Amino acid sequence: MRVEDKNSKQDNWFKHIAAREQSGNPQWQYCLENDLSAVQFGYWRKRFLKHHHENNNP
Fold first, then answer.
1. Contact assessment for residue 55 and residue 35, using Cβ atoms and an 8 Å cutoff
2. How far apart are CA 26 and CA 44, in angstroms?
3. Residue 53's pLDDT band (cuts 50, 70, 90)
4. Where are the alpha helices (DSSP H) in the chain?
5. Alpha-carbon distance 20 to 39, whole Å?
6. How much is the pTM?
7. Which bin fits 24, alpha (ψ -120 to 50), beta or left (φ > 0)?
8. Are 36 and 30 in contact (CB under 8 A)?
9. Is the pLDDT of residue 26 over 80?
10. Would you say 44 and 31 are in contact if contact means Cβ atoms under 8 Å apart?
């Protein structure tokens, strides 16, 4: 997989994670409504939190 494809995939998941947080819906409900795997959502959510933690704490 090319770096551009990985970045695009990451950006797409990070957008979903931010949208889920803004929606206020539980993770399971957001995944159901958006036809997403709850397991993959959890995986990307961990990466999202780690990414934001690393970028906000030098």
1. no
2. 16
3. confident
4. 3-23, 27-33, 38-56
5. 15
6. 0.80
7. left
8. yes
9. yes
10. no
